[in-house]
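Exercise 7.
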Amino acid sequence: MGMTLGPTFFNRPSLEVARDLLGKSLVRKLGRKTISLTITETEAYEGSEDLASHARFGKTARTAPIFSRAGTIYVYFIYGIHWMLNFACGEIDEPAAVLIRGAGEIRGPARLTKALSIDKRLDGKLVGRKTGLWIEDDGFAPARDQIATLPRVGIPYAGAYIHKPWRFVLDARGKRLPVKA
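Solution. The predicted structure, written as tokens, is:
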């Protein structure tokens, strides 16, 4: 069991937060059961200029959490079937977020939210034990050669932002994962 990370951890640029979340534990309390998974893949979204970010259209009822306090949970529905888990980063009204793409043996953000019963009920809440979803730091910090930096995926509409290397993948064995861009 490590130190629970709060808003201060997230009150930084999303690219820093995305990299620094690798190796931390994503913890979910479901009734009497607590599930803890090591975060293995993240993706950063930085500001309203980022054409891949939902913030590109400004603040709406849907996107309000990413304009909120650092550490606010942003859960949205995609393709009418999947929930995606994000955490707001940086200052209030300067929208940025990190998408959690994988943890433990679970690869893929939709599989992750399904396995952890994450849905709209957490949207807009602050990450922490009170919400039943938090991040723990046991002091592990992966070496640079344990992190692959890759382009984000699934954003064909994002113009010049398609190829930004803002996806981070951890291989806890010390080798880069063979990830397809």
